[in-house]
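User: Please predict the structure of the protein below. I'd like the answer in structure-token form so I can feed it into my own downstream comparison script.

Assistant: Understood. Taking the following sequence of 275 residues as input:
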Amino acid sequence: MLPVKHFNFLKNLTFCFGSCVFMLSQLSAQIATFSEDFTGDSLVGWNTFGTGGTLDTVDDVYTMEAIQGSQSPYLNRPGSGPVTTMSDYTATISFDMINFKGGGASGASADFRMHTNGEDGRIEFKVNPWGNVNITHSDYRTSGGWTITNLAGDNALSVGTSNIQNGSSLTIQQKYTVSTDSFEWSYAFNDDALTSLYTNSLGATGSDGFGDTITGISFQSNAKMVEISYGQWSDVSPAAEIDITSFSVVVPEPNTYALIAGMLVLSSVVIRRRK
């Protein structure tokens, strides 16, 4: 039989490790990380509604056709909250602009929107067929917020209307940093490197900041972690169409390492006390 002091040491050490393992399991369960390349025959973890959204299992894309008069196609992923620890994250979506820029009355033209939601706030990134971008932050608690319109001027993404073209690929990245409570939006065409488009931080948002988006305290029951929609302005045919090729949210896990470090510190304290 173990001496009492050895037994107590093992008991305390087991408790330390068990507590950290529990915290790690809780953290891992709450991390809002996913990567989707639309391979396979089903959209596990996603919700769809509206008309014009189709999973293409041959080309491994999610096709969105936006026809005016019908409910726009939506693709969303529910949150897994509550999330009690804020985290940095990077959301990246790429899609092929099959019939994105149709030329107004002479063709199909639609707005692409990406929403990210938290318990107390929502971010909308919208780009139209001419490369004009609007970014909106809505505060659920105060009914306040702001909108940046005509971001960086008309054709911000098109660089003289040369890049927003049917058949091109567009990547949009939204990056959130906890330490500065700030977002940065970037974009890239085809295989080009990402170009920073706009950065917004706490100073531009008031006291609420952004600390409630995706990795905020929890998700409202009716809010989705991420949501994509595609809405057409006119009823011309063929409909505006995009093929989403990939979508991911990456949340680094610095807190995991902090917990491991804490576990080691606790263990060393127990060992020192044993001595």
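That's the full token string. The helical segments are 4-30, 254-274.
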